């Protein structure tokens, strides 16, 4: 990796952590939990253990792929990838919420509400990203243009 | 067959997978439209370059035509001048011939006069 590329990548990572710290943390947590569930199936949430093995892995892969897409989208500034990743994370959390609310999950209302809230938050984030997609891009471009102008001076 | 919790999980995951896939598809479409726009911009630039080249060559032709007209006018003037000079030369030749004749005449007369005086 050349020096310039390393600097650009580092800047992207820094910007992602400054602007989208909570989303990055969420994505990293999802990737880590997906890896844990796939490698150690016994560590899966109780509600997920009622599912067959392949469905557990499918759920975990939704978490992992969603987290990766979201992280890549944040790093590359690609709103479509971010939204795709968030859709997958929303699906995984709403699935868990539904399972917790269901008789197979033991009617765990508080646990279900927690994951339902997570799904709702991710949903609103998806909506917000869709609405402010162009505005966000414009802001970042304007900021970069301003910095470049200052650097040239 | 799917039943119970698996059905719930599968349904919710399927719906969100479809939504995520639509995002990926719209991203690909966006990329394609961006590429198309870039190609259009490039084509526009090429057209502009062509038009500039055409305008430049037209200008060059105009300049050459103007220079040609100038040269032709100069050539006409020079031809006219040459004609005038030729006429002048002819007149001068005639004058010289007449004067030569006069000189011959005078010389002959002088010779006659000398012979008579002897």
Q: Mind explaining what this structure looks like?
A:
The complex is a heterodimer of chains A (153) and B (118). Chain A has 6 helices and no strands. Chain A has one domain. Chain A has 153 residues and is mainly α. Chain A has helices at 3-19, 21-39, 53-76, 79-101, 109-131, 133-152. Chain A is elongated, with a radius of gyration of 18 Å. Chain A is 82% helix and 0% strand. Chain B has 118 residues and is mainly alpha-helical. Chain B is rod-shaped and about 170 Å long. Chain B starts with a helix and ends with a helix. Chain B has one helix spanning 5-117. The longest helix of chain B is centred in the middle third of the chain and has 113 residues, at 5-117. The A-B interface holds A 50-52, 55, 58-59, 62, 66, 69, 78, 80-81, 83-85, 87-88, 90-92, 94-95, 98-99, 102, 104-105 and B 4-6, 8-10, 12-13, 15-17, 19-21, 23-24, 26-27, 30.
Search tags:
heterodimer; A: 153 residues; mainly alpha; 82% helix; B: 118 residues; 1 helix; rod-shaped
In short:
Chain A is mainly α.
Fraction of residues in H or I helices of chain A: over 70%
Class computed from helices, strands and strand pairing of chain B: mainly alpha
Which two chains share the most extensive interface?
A: A-B, 27 and 19 residues
Low-confidence stretches of chain B: none
Helix residue percentage of chain B: over 70%
- β-strand percent of chain A reads under 5%
Broad shape of chain A: elongated
Question: Helix count of chain A?
Answer: 6
Topology as H/E string of chain A? HHHHHH
Radius of gyration of chain A: 18 Å
What gap, in angstroms, lies between the N and C termini of chain B? 165 Å
Cα separation of the termini of chain A: 30 Å
Contiguous low-pLDDT stretches of chain A (5 residues minimum) are none
Overall pLDDT level of chain B = 90
Instruction: Tell me the major beta sheet of chain A.
Output: none
Oligomer: heterodimer
Give average pLDDT of chain A, whole number.
86
Structural class of chain A: mainly alpha
Number of strands of chain B: 0
- Morphology call of chain B: rod-shaped
């Amino acid at each position: 990796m050349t020096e310039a590329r390393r600097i650009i990548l580092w800047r992207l990572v820094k910007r992602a952590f400054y602007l989208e710290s909570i989303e990055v943390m969420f994505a990293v947590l999802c990737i880590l939990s997906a890896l844990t569930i796939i490698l150690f199936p016994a560590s899966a949430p109780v509600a997920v253990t009622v599912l067959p093995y392949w469905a557990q892995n499918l759920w975990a892969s939704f978490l992992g792929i969603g987290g990766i897409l979201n992280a890549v989208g944040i790093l590359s500034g690609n709103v479509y990838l971010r939204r795709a990743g968030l859709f997958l994370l929303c699906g995984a959390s709403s699935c868990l919420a539904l399972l917790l609310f269901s008789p197979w999950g033991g009617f765990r209302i508080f646990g279900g509400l927690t994951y339902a809230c997570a799904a709702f938050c991710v949903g609103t984030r998806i909506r917000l990203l869709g609405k402010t997609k162009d505005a966000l891009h414009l802001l970042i471009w304007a900021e970069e243009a301003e910095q470049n102008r200052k650097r040239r001076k | 067959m799917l039943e119970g919790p698996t059905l719930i999980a599968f349904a919710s995951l399927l719906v969100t997978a479809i939504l995520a896939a639509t995002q990926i598809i719209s991203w690909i479409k966006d990329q394609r439209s961006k590429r198309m726009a870039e190609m259009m911009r490039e084509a526009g630039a090429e057209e502009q370059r062509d038009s500039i080249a055409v305008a430049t060559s037209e200008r060059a032709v105009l300049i050459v035509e103007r220079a040609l007209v100038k040269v032709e006018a100069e050539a006409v003037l020079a031809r006219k001048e040459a004609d005038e000079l030729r006429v002048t030369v002819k007149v001068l030749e005639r004058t010289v011939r007449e004067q030569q004749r006069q000189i011959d005449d005078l010389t002959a007369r002088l010779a006659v006069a000398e012979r008579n005086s002897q």
